Amino acid sequence: xxxKRKREHLQLICDxxxxxxxxxxxxxxxxxxxLPGINPDEIDTAVVFCGKRLxxxxxxxxxxGGIPEAVAMNRALARVARRLGIPLAVGSQxxxxxxxSCRPSYAVVREExxxxxxxxxxxxxxxxxxxxxxxxxxxxxxxxxxxxxxxxAMMPGGEGDLCFRDYRQKIKLLAKTLPVPVVVKETGCxxxxxxxxxxLDTGIAALDVGGKGGANFILVESCRSKQDYGQxxxxxxxxxxxxxxxxxxxxxxxxxxxxxxxxxNGLEAAKALSLGAKLVGxxxxxxxxxxxRGEQAVENCLLQFRRQLQQTMLLLGVCNWAELQQRPLVIxxxxxxxxxxxxxxxxxxxxxxxxx
Length: 356
Hints:
It is built from 16 helices and 12 strands. Helices cover 45% and strands 13% of the residues.
């Protein structure tokens, strides 16, 4: 059943459009700088994430594993990650914990990218021993613990695990015990400030907001069930922009934050980084490019993201991530209204004053 589900997930990600809601970044606008005052060779896109310096602030986010066809995809993703210096997360390793024959579909990423930054991936409900096994399986540099309550609730035929009790305590135990940093991630519905504050003292190293606007796993599961009971929930969650701001306003610099969920170009990535994200996660576009045109298309997609990020930084006259965070952003539309209703001042970003 698990293998069938993984195949169907990949196919439906290719077949379904993003959304229906947007990621919210259309409401966020840079104030243009007509006197940039820098040259392209002065731009440095490096960031420090979970204590490691990374040359490019992108993350190939969790996609797949556990099925034969995942071997070729993960091999390609790992090779692209190695060439571009981008961190890579594998899909949930639960299948490999249950069936050792699935392990090559995950282990291939370390074989192809021996020195890269690799993240393992499991549910928050796992035991310490299972988490240690997943980390060892791919010699991971960090572990993602995914939150996907909405997806689990929409799975057909009783497939979903609906026991969410004591997740915070389990996360705290894993963060305290594991030898690698722990990243807690949502998978398309976003993290609100209340839960960000709950997770702040668990000992985790980072949060991946995983907001709505990209691949919609509520609709994916509805399609798998061939029923429409998930349709009323198709807009459930926080947009990536809203979730990112709520999380950043809650945790400040105490945790590293990943912006993920429907970010589809380097300009949107620049907005997320300017708000304070350390990395920008990308997944669904890479699946679609791999199936349509192969490994080179995956690399071209990420190269275009990087070029657009560099173009944005050039137009703003910023040389690095710290300077990008100082540039004013005007937040309008539904995103601005949401933040106001939540007691967050969107105007504080518009009033930024770059240091001399």
